[in-house]
Write a structure and sequence with these properties.
9 helices, Rossmann fold, eight-stranded mixed beta sheet, 334 residues
Length: 334
C-alpha cells in the first residue's frame, strides 16, 4: 500500500471511529487545535503537580489539578481525563483546571507512547530463559516505539490512572469519574463498562461505532502487515492525526476496526453518563452517539452545543458550556 493510500485510509478510519456517517458539507471546519486553543489560566488557589503513573510497567505522564484550599485531610471526588485521536494532555489541561476550579481533583493523562509518557519497549535480543526463574534482571538492546495508537491499550492506561488517583491522599477512592473527548469519548464508555470503580461518566463529542462485536476478515494490506509484524517484530507506519500529525503503526487500522466502545453502554447499569455533542459535528455526525445514548438505561443527559463543529467544542463559549456541564455532572453524581 502506498503512503498516500495509507494516509487516506487513516483519515477514513478516524472518521469512522468518530461516528461512521457522512461529513457535514455546510459546517465551517476547524481542523484541529493550536497552542492558542490550549491556553488557559488557573483560577485563584488552584494548584497542580506533575506525576508519573505506570501502565503495564511503562512510565506515563499525568498532571494533577487540586482545588483551592485542598487538604489531604479531606476526601474529594476525583476525575481522570483523556484526549482523543493522536492527542495528549496539552489540549485538555484546561478541562482539568476547570474541574479543579469547581471543587474536584482532576488527573489529565497521556497514553503510553504519547505526550510526556514513555513508549512501548521491545527487547530485540533473544534472552536465555529459565522457566524456573520468574524475574530476570539483565542488559539487552531494546527498541522504544512511539508509533502505537491502540484503543485497547489506551483503555488500560485510563484504568491504571484510576488506580493511581485512588491512592492520592485527599481523594475519595469511592468517588471516581472519567471524562473523555473525541476518540476518548468512546474510551470512557468502555472503561466504565469494564470497571465498576467508575461512578460517573462524561463523554464529549464521542467516537464510536454502532456495530456489534463480530469476527472481522483480515486480508489485503492489513493481513500483509500483520504477517510482517509477526515474522519481523515491526510493521509499516503511516501518518495520521488532526491537531498533531504523527507516524503510527498500520496495526492501528486493524485495532480500530475491532474496537466497539458503544457496545459497552449496556454495562453501565445505574451509573450516570453525560454526553456532550456538537450540533455541526463533521467527523461522522451524531447518529452513532444518539443510538448509543438511546440504549442507556440509567441516569443520562444529552447536551447538544448549537452551531459548533468538532474542534470548536474546545474553545470560546462552547468550552465554557462543555466544561461547566461536566463539572456540574460530576459534582451532582460523585
Amino acid at each position: 500500500m502506498t503512503r498516500l493510500k495509507l494516509i487516506r485510509a487513516s483519515m477514513l478510519v478516524a472518521a469512522l471511529a468518530l461516528g461512521g456517517n457522512a461529513m457535514a458539507a455546510d459546517a465551517p471546519i476547524k481542523r484541529g487545535l493550536t497552542q492558542q486553543d490550549w491556553a488557559y489560566k488557573l483560577a485563584e488557589g488552584v494548584t497542580t503537580r506533575e506525576v508519573t503513573y505506570y501502565s503495564d510497567g511503562v512510565a506515563c505522564y499525568a498532571k494533577l489539578f487540586f482545588p483551592k484550599n485542598f487538604s489531604t485531610d479531606k476526601k474529594l471526588p476525583g476525575v481522570v481525563l483523556g484526549q482523543g485521536w493522536a492527542g495528549y494532555h496539552n489540549s485538555i489541561e484546561k478541562y482539568g483546571a476547570r474541574l479543579a476550579q469547581r471543587g474536584l481533583v482532576a488527573m489529565v493523562i497521556d497514553y503510553r507512547g504519547w505526550g510526556g509518557s514513555d513508549g512501548f519497549a521491545t527487547v530485540t535480543d533473544r534472552l536465555k530463559n529459565d522457566d524456573a526463574v520468574r524475574v530476570t534482571r539483565t542488559q539487552a538492546n531494546i527498541v522504544v516505539k512511539r508509533t502505537r495508537l491502540l484503543p485497547a491499550r489506551q483503555v488500560e492506561d485510563f484504568r491504571n490512572a484510576i488506580s493511581y488517583l485512588q491512592g492520592e491522599a485527599g481523594v475519595d477512592p469511592e468517588r471516581i469519574g472519567v471524562w473523555g473527548s473525541s476518540f476518548a469519548g468512546g474510551h470512557v464508555i468502555t472503561v466504565a463498562g469494564q470497571d465498576a470503580r467508575v461512578k460517573a461518566i462524561v463523554s464529549q463529542i464521542p467516537g464510536g461505532s454502532n456495530a456489534q462485536p463480530a469476527p472481522l476478515k483480515l486480508d489485503g494490506a492489513l493481513l500483509a502487515d500483520a504477517i510482517k509484524r509477526a515474522r519481523t517484530g515491526q510493521g509499516d507506519e503511516y501518518e495520521t492525526g488532526f491537531s498533531i500529525r504523527r507516524m503510527v503503526d498500520v496495526e492501528t487500522q486493524q485495532a480500530v476496526r475491532e474496537y466497539y466502545p458503544f457496545y459497552h453502554v449496556r454495562y453501565l447499569g445505574e451509573r450516570p453518563i453525560l454526553m456532550v455533542v456538537a450540533e455541526k459535528e463533521e467527523l461522522g455526525g451524531n447518529v452513532a452517539s444518539r443510538a448509543a445514548f438511546a440504549e442507556i438505561q440509567g441516569p443520562k443527559k444529552w447536551i447538544e452545543v448549537p452551531g459548533v463543529t468538532h474542534f470548536q467544542m474546545y474553545i470560546d463559549d462552547a468550552f465554557e458550556t462543555s466544561s461547566n456541564a461536566a463539572a456540574d455532572w460530576f459534582n451532582q453524581h460523585l
